Amino acid sequence: MPVPQKIASYLNSLKPVSPHLMEILNSLDTGGSVLDVGRKLSLDPVLSARLIHACSSPLYGIKKKIESPVHAVAMLGINKVAEILLTSELKKNFFKGHFSTYEYDFWEHSLAIAYGTQALIRCMGFEISLGKAFTTGLLHDLGKIILYKIYKDNAELASWLAAGGNAALLKEKEIVGCNHVEVMTFALIKWGIPIDVVKAIKDHHNFKNKDDMTRIIQWAHFAVYGKEYPEPPVTSYVLKRVRQDISRDLELVDLFFH
Ligand SMILES: [Fe+2]
Ligand SMILES: [Fe+2]
User: Fold this and answer.
1) From CA 252, how far away is CA 240, in angstroms rounded?
2) Which CATH class is domain 97-258?
């Protein structure tokens, strides 16, 4: 669905996502040889430099110095490299200099859901790549930060964006003409993000959608915030493991901001 001109212009003003990163995100299900992926990354010097720099962040706990994209893929695997590149790509576009409490909470939420989806996949054995799950989790509410940045003087919108839930979706649409899900769906299609990721994000507020990826995003919200699931997907023992996994990952979230 088209979005208001003001939003389309903002999205056009963003730096394009590297085609090499897109290629990697699109190949996460089929995998690829370490050499192939590393060589493709080496063709993009800016992306390569960003990957090597990001690998030195304490967020990833990588002890050895990463020398090249091939070295990074060999040591960390393709899923982890995709995770690092996507996080730094978003930081570059949306997270510069001073940030408000809302922005801090937003990124904390997005990272928590990204880690939550991975924990669910690890504990429940879904056949979805961890890199793709992380991508879906990290991007699922990005439409909120886009609306927040475009309409930064609209306090009513900001309070609905922070409130969340289906009532907020209606209010967002009433105030600016489209909600964060519609903004994000438009942006993801424009960027060429894998279609299964787009579908899951488009439906992350629709509990009638029973696709694995969509449900994992929804369950991650319950797991992260310790709420009861409407339809428990697994036994309470597995849920406990998922929550332990997530809380370990969440201890690292603060490092994202440094
Ligand atoms: Fe949402
Ligand atoms: Fe969310």
Assistant:
1) 20
2) mainly alpha
